[in-house]
From TrEMBL:
It comes from Gemmata palustris. Residues 1-20 form the signal peptide. This is PQQ-binding-like beta-propeller repeat protein. The keyword Hydrolase does not apply. Residues 296-331 form the EF-hand domain. InterPro entries: EF_Hand_1_Ca_BS (IPR018247), EF_hand_dom (IPR002048), PQQ_b-propeller_rpt (IPR018391), PQQ_rpt_dom (IPR002372), Quinoprotein_ADH-like_sf (IPR011047), WD40/YVTN_repeat-like_dom_sf (IPR015943). Keywords: Signal. Coiled coil: none annotated.
Length: 467
């Protein structure tokens, strides 16, 4: 009898805590953005298939869904929070503050100190804040441990973007900053450091993924002009692919036995930045010889003036401009697929119509790329050959949220608040439905338990098919 009880206890301990219906990290299962066994509604809005909506504090993190709970992070009144809501009705269940000695510098309209999506193993929730590090809670909001880190400083003080992932009992965090970049593996049970690997790369905003490459688990970390594979258990660098985008914002995707990644940033061959003289001319400050905030407001560069004024003296000199542009030098914009086999060999490469912030989604053998415009490109995920290229979609123009897919459709959500549903598998992007929400959407939607969860700048929406 004792042996039977012990056997049952061991079986329960080893049983998976997450279900197929959960969405437990950034972009859901394996970070792929796909929940093909779920059936979220195709038509939805404020008066259609709305299960509930609840006001949420500011933040850019995506919601995760574990069982009957929804968790996200937020930044309000100069405080950082992890907040849990009921999946049934959106009622707030608990809210816990992560204490920070100093809030990381961030862009006031484009960034957020609560931009990192939490991750869960079905029993605990781990939140990351660039301002203070990792915090682990149980699902009732009881703090389990903290792993403190120095306040993050990113290039141009944009703010943190990376999210943690959980695999094999480890919390994995890729922390590329303006200095002291590193990848961390933290023991999920204890909060102690399992390993740390320093990196030479500077600021990146991507989240890592775990790739089971022929039975060997590899942590894939995008970075400045690079894509690197690390042994999951030791942190040893296994290989690196160079000549990638100078700024990494997107997350790789595992497709069968292959890994695909798409990276783009300004400064590549397909997007030459204006010279300093050209910017001065646009600003009407060519005779002045430096750029002021008032002058920058007359250029497309205006919203990013403060982030590119390193000494905060209210002007950007030629030398400061050149130093800022170094970050973007040497990168190559392209999408790649890597062969299995542990060497980081490229199977195919594609160099056109690449998105800056939205990660690709690979769905039913096809890879979809969403570029501001919006323009959608569809590739055969196995060969990289285009099915269609840069097809215009009737939806919002700018995107921070990544596409997600389920039940034969791809869902895209724009900074203008437009959410569009595109039929997958067609020879052109066929919009089945679109709706404009009253607020911008910058967080990637979640699909779980046959429900589409969308976090806007003010609300968390739950849309589900009403029977």
């Amino acid at each position: 009898m004792t042996k039977l009880i012990a056997s049952l206890t061991l079986s329960l301990a080893l049983a998976p805590l997450l279900t197929a219906a959960d969405w437990a990290q950034f972009r859901g299962p394996a970070g792929a953005g796909v929940a093909d066994d779920q059936k979220p509604p195709v038509k939805f809005g404020l008066k259609e298939n709305l299960a509930w909506k609840v006001a949420v504090p500011p933040g850019a993190s995506s919601p995760i869904v574990i069982g009957d709970k929804i968790v996200l992070t937020a930044f309000e009144d100069n405080k950082l929070f992890t907040i849990c809501y009921s999946r049934t009705d959106g009622k707030e269940l608990w809210r816990k503050e992560a204490k920070a000695k100093k809030i990381e510098p961030f862009h006031p309209t484009e960034g957020s100190p609560a931009a990192s999506t939490p991750a869960s193993d079905g029993k605990t929730v781990v939140s990351y804040f660039g301002s203070c590090g990792l915090v682990c809670y149980d699902l009732d909001g009881n703090e389990q441990w903290k792993f403190e880190l120095p306040t993050a400083v990113t290039n141009n003080e944009f703010g943190t973007g990376t999210s943690p992932v959980i695999a094999d009992g480890l919390v994995l965090l890729a922390r590329d900053l303006s200095k002291d970049s590193a990848v961390y593996a933290i023991d999920l049970a204890t909060g102690s450091q399992a390993w740390k690997t320093e990196r030479k790369q500077k600021t990146a905003f991507s989240s890592p993924v775990v790739w089971d490459d022929g039975g060997k688990k590899v942590l894939i970390v995008p970075g400045m002009a690079s894509l690197t594979g690390y042994d999951l258990q030791s942190g040893k660098e296994l290989w690196a692919v160079n000549k990638m985008a100078a700024v990494a914002c997107t997350t790789p995707v595992v497709f069968k036995d292959t890994l695909v990644y798409s990276g783009w940033s300004p400064g590549g061959s397909d997007f030459k930045l204006p010279t300093f003289d050209e910017i001065l001319k646009q600003a009407g400050e060519d005779k002045l010889g430096h750029l002021t905030k008032a002058g920058a407001a007359k250029t497309p560069f205006g919203n990013f003036f403060d982030n590119n004024d390193p000494n905060k003296d209210g002007k950007i000199t030629r030398e400061e401009w050149a130093e800022n542009m170094k970050v973007l030098a040497g990168g190559e914009n392209r999408a790649v697929a890597l062969k299995p086999g542990g060497k980081g060999e490229i199977a195919w490469s594609y160099t056109k119509n690449l998105p800056y912030v939205p990660s690709p989604v690979v769905y039913r053998e096809r890879m979809y790329l969403l570029k501001d415009g919006p323009l959608m490109t569809c590739l055969d995920a196995k060969t990289g050959k285009p099915v269609y290229e840069a097809e215009r979609v009737k939806a919002g123009a700018r995107y921070y949220a990544s596409p997600v897919a389920a039940n034969g459709h791809i869902y895209i959500a724009s900074l203008e608040g437009t959410v569009a549903v595109i039929v997958a598998g067609e020879d052109a992007p066929d919009v089945a439905y679109s709706v404009k929400l009253p607020e911008p959407v910058r967080a990637t939607p979640a699909i779980a338990h046959n429900t589409l969860y969308i976090r806007s700048d003010k609300f968390l929406y739950a849309f589900t098919e009403k029977k």
